[in-house]
Design a protein that fits this description.
This protein is mostly helical. The chain has four helices and no strands.
Length: about 80
């Protein structure tokens, strides 16, 4: 499969297996791609297999599916005291 087909398959597997919406699955794969997770796949098309897509779906969900840390609202900026 091509690099693009591989990304599509990883996205589909995340959507089907982990209960995310299609949009959320796409965003997750895009986040992993932006972080360089799929760089080797782009350089070496032999990595773009069904088995690897299944492995990548699990790993991408595990590593990039965590919610962003909560940011405080309405309080002082970190390191600053209220007056």
């Amino acid at each position: 499969m091509t690099y693009e087909e591989h990304l599509d398959e990883v996205t589909t597997l995340i959507f089907e297996r982990f209960g995310l919406s299609e949009h959320a699955a796409i965003q997750l794969v895009m986040k992993a791609q932006a972080a360089g997770y799929f760089s080797e796949h782009d350089d070496d098309p032999s990595l773009c297999t069904q088995l690897r897509a299944e492995q990548d779906a699990k790993r991408v969900f595990k590593e990039y599916g965590k919610p962003a840390p909560a940011t405080p609202t309405g309080g002082p900026a970190p390191g600053r005291r209220r007056r």
